[in-house]
Amino acid sequence: MQHKTQLTLSFLLSQVLLLACAEDLECVPGFQQKVFYIEKPFQFTEDRLILNLKFDDCKGNNKLNFEVSNPDFTVELDGNLVARKNVSEVGKALFVHARSEHAEDMAEIFILEANERHGALKEIIKLEGNLGIPRQKRAILATPILIPENQRPPFPRLVGKVIRSEGTEGVKFRLSGKGVDQDPKGIFRINEMNGDVSVTRTLDREAIANYELEVEVVDMNGKTMDGPVRLDISVIDQNDNRPMFKEGPYVGHVMEGSATGTTVMRMAAFDADDASTDNALLRYNILRQTPTKPSPNMFYIDPEKGDIVTVVSPALLDRETMESPKYELVIEAKDMGGMDVGLTGTATATILIDDKNDHAPEFTKKEFQATVKEGVTGVIVNLTVGDRDDPATGAWRAVYSIINGNPGQSFEIHTNPQTNEGMLSVVKPLDYEISAFHTLLIKVENEDPLIPDIAYGPSSTATVQITVEDVNEGPVFHPNPMAVTKQENIPVGSVVLTVNATDPDTLQHQTIRYSVYKDPAGWLEINPTNGTIGTTAVLDRESPFVHNNVYTALFLAIDSGNPPATGTGTLHITLEDVNDNVPSLYPTLAKVCDDAKDLRVVVLGASDKDLHPNTDPFKFELSKQSGPEKLWRINRLNNTHAQVILLQNLKKANYNIPISVTDSGKPPLTNTTELRLQVCTCKKSKMDCSAADALHISLTLILLSLLSLFCL
């Protein structure tokens, strides 16, 4: 607004300058004064003179015609501006377009509040008083030019004139700036000889609203004589843009039962025309409402703000009785303040009536029946309810609860999210022998709370009668699993345990028989009548069928029902260890070079399948060596390892060294193992252990053995 005020002040200053030196200038076609300031009255009275506009085309004003931007005003042939009727609101400005056979021009009338007018006139007087330039020095007069947009051909069209007070002989005018020699180029041009300014094409205010040009006077050689002086060209808005709704889609929500006058949403259109004129002054209206029930006028739109509000009573805004909870309004925005001559744009506003929880859910019947077999779990019955609220909201979704008849927590109820039904389930198997009938009291509520004046009634509770059917249940072992501890290697036929199984069907008086179901090692048998378990083979703790010292077998208890029912019992036998495994020696092969300096041949280890204390510490010993000389010895390293050491280098051959190892069991067990020692030839880090002499050595050993036998 400040920029516009400064601009119009400059217009007025230019007019002052023009009037000041009018006696020295030739006739300029157009309005003799282009900018006016008037104080806004309380009301423009019909046919009362507002001001007089002076237009002269310098050729007699033949076929002169005036057009006013606001149709509530007119300009008479003598230039008097009057109102057609009593008018209170007109906006910030009026534009008057004058056209004759030889010229056309635009005048602008600014309507100011009292304080605005005082300030504007004060600034004009101040500027006029401070000019400080003698009249004869005002060489170039470049009056601001106003051009309506969207002018029709022919072009070029005369729009203004630049005047040089000292005459134009021997000089010429030069025009420059954006719209002349800068992009967009060629829009304006000036007659070099007389200063006439022309426009060459149609202007669009929405593209460029103002042009700031410079005009100067140069001699025939191009040397500047006067100027440059600023020439302002303003494009006057025409109503050439329709209102547009740019922010769609437009969707609003209002709660059912809302009070009359509740704001639903705001519609806002955009008009590209000058916002300070009626060309962009919008008014809103509802053209059509769909559906039209229960009232064709469910909503009202504020014509100035665009706010849509409800206008029906809360009782009519009832979602459950409406034909549809969705309304579509065709909204029209019209410029020119809504007058008939205004341009229009439309958009659709969708209004959704949101549900509130004003209806409690109700069971479709007071009592439901269900039948379930004992021992079975899962859904046994679906409870149905009705609710008139919106299915897409928590005002419709049901929440079920069991409020009586479920002390053992054998039942649960959940909501089916698709159907809203209550799915009643058995979660703990029922026992016919304990109770053949159950009665549950079920309550249904909504996820969302009811509105204050609505409450849950008797229809929001229902009874479920459940009948339990008897089935032939399998016998049950006591305890299960069963556990017993036995020593391994107990005699075949030993009693391990007598099992006990009972039939839950106490009313049927059935007999029970026993059998072996799974016995991985085949060690056990069971008496079919009394359930006594005995051994049929030796129990071996070291067996691959024993895990962590425990042997597991399964047994069946079968009743005499028709058909018979079976129960399974698990038996865990923990086996205690006895010293029944001799220790083993490793490794049983060693190699050494015939010229080795380190005669420590090999480290031996011992292991035992039994458990402590029937294992280590182990005792390592060499059997008696034959021959006159001892060739090796054995040294104990720790509880489980010993080392064999040669007492001298041996010739290349294979030697068998008998070694005995004894565990710590009571009684201890001993195992003798031959360590095969290969004496090899070693050259250049290569070991040759081929048995070239092995046969000779073996025969020698055989002969020595035979000789010793004969000597006996």
List the helices and strands and how they pair.
Elements: H1 2-20, E1 30-31, E2 35-39, E3 49-52, E4 55-56, E5 65-68, E6 73-75, E7 80-83, E8 93-99, E9 104-112, H2 114-129, E10 140-142, E11 145-148, E12 157-164, E13 171-177, E14 188-190, E15 196-199, E16 210-219, E17 224-236, E18 250-255, E19 263-266, E20 283-290, E21 299-301, E22 307-310, E23 326-334, E24 344-354, E25 362-363, E26 367-373, E27 378-383, E28 385-386, E29 398-404, E30 411-415, E31 422-426, E32 437-446, E33 461-469, E34 476-477, E35 482-487, E36 495-498, E37 501-502, E38 512-518, E39 524-526, E40 532-535, E41 550-559, E42 566-576, E43 584-586, E44 589-593, E45 600-607, E46 619-622, E47 632-636, E48 641-646, E49 653-662, E50 670-683, E51 686-688, H3 694-711
Helix pairs in contact: 1-2
GO cellular component, one term: side of membrane
Domain Cadherin: 171-245, 246-363, 364-477, 478-585, 584-695
Signal peptide: 1-22
